[in-house]
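Hi R.,

Here are the chain sequences for the assembly we discussed:
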Amino acid sequence: MMKKKRLFENIIHGIFLILGLITVGFVLLITVYLIISGIPAIREIGVFKFLFGKVWASTAAEPSYGILPFILTSVYGTAGAIMIGVPIGFMTAVYLAKLAPKKIKTVMESAVSLLAGIPSVVYGLVGMIVLVPAVRKLFHLPDGASLFAAIMVLAVMILPSIIKVSITALEAVPKEYEDASLALGATPVETYFRVSVPAAKSGIAAAVVLGVGRAIGEAMAVMMVAGNVANMPSLFGSVRFLTTAVASEMSYSSGLQQQALFSIALVLFLFIMLINAALNFFLKRDKEDSK
Amino acid sequence: MKTKKILALALAAVCVLGMLAGCGKQETGTVSTDGSTSMEKVIGSLKETFEAENKGITVTYNPTGSGTGITAVAEGRCDIGLSSRDLKEEETAKGLEGTVIAYDGIAIIVNPENTVDDLTIEDIAKIYTGEIKNWKEVGGKDAEIVCIGREAGSGTRDGFESITDTKDQCKLKQELTSTGDVITTVAGNPSAIGYASLASVKDSVKALKVGGVAPSEATIKDGSYKVQRNFVLVTKKDTKLSDAAQKFFDYMTSSEASEIIRKAGAVPVK
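And here is the predicted structure of the full complex:
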């Protein structure tokens, strides 16, 4: 009887292991595939020319494959979104975690969750139909599709992840810290900003990194508001991100052009790996802090 | 055991008979087509209805571009080449033959608020290459022109740029990935200009006259509307097509196919 039970246990363990390995397998498969299909074009074009070339004209008679405009656009776009999204998200998180009355907190938290659940194509659509014409009128531009419009959309898109992770971090701060601060005569707001926030700083940093990851990997919404012309980035100019560079040309591409698109994807992948490494670093430090 | 065996035999016999019956009625085979990406929609719809009517025949379509398609026929790598431009002299000299099945009209669209309603091809080319920057230069309001185009590799872009002779010279404000996006953007910006396949143009935008001629099926057919090109089937003059390929070729050039071509957004020849 015991033997049978143990055998059954082992089988279940085995099944779970296999299911777990499926995920790992996919990660490996994608990584290996990206590297294998991304390297040839880089080799043919030349690393320096590819990464620092300023002109992308993939279907021209004399094609040129420089992705510096895309890299810079992705970096600037993400930085802009973080600059707008983080203060809003952070303050919201402090309010929701510490100050808000219970009723308001429930309503606002479900609103944040809803924002997280909106598909990116909907963000893009609203951006395209409402935001882009608004930007055009507000700044008296000939056309509103620009880096600025993309930053605005990305800033809204990263809010939920920043808010949610920050709330979790702030709520995990031991109540004793705050009680001690209050007992020493600090006001509640002083306590939250001087005690709770510093205690939760690793978690909040993780929230920001998560926001960066979301912003740099977004394609659909950005494609609909950024104009997609491979210019060097300028705030009110039409720009193309790393993600949209891959997405917009993939369907018709062939030969070296297609290989170069894989190389762009590889560069994007490396960026995201870096961000993930940063995220892991912060989360690990968070764990060590709380020990 | 015995009954099972008999049953299996009977089933097998039925299967074989079914196959034979299938063979008797229909031809089988594959037809490979290769070429123009612009013709994707037309060929796609034709292939679908053709395959539904001729169960045994499979049609393959390889969207590589007109030039590659023509070379593929010449080298015998496919049955029928698809080209969205007429054959050049050196290509017909190689023994190739073109059969026009449809015309593709590209509408030049602007916002309905725009007061301009007629441009020449030269004007359009100058607008897209950045030589004309303001609508007042072509008789409109004082507003900077916003050129909307399609992504690299798009058939419509290729068609527009080859007709206006602006290949690789267009200075675009926006590069969008679908006809619908172009129309929405032009509808939302009073100083925008864009191009889209005539069949998909809606009331939310205004299709310009080109050289005084408004785009319509009639003006495209008689050639007076200039922003158009031919959809051409390319075959070898001296080599006979396989039965299946000939059948598909006949089908595409029949008047029965016209309605399907029209639905796919092009103007049929017949």
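The first strand of chain A starts at residue 56 and ends at 57. The radius of gyration of chain A is 23 Å.

Let me know if anything looks off.

Best,
T.
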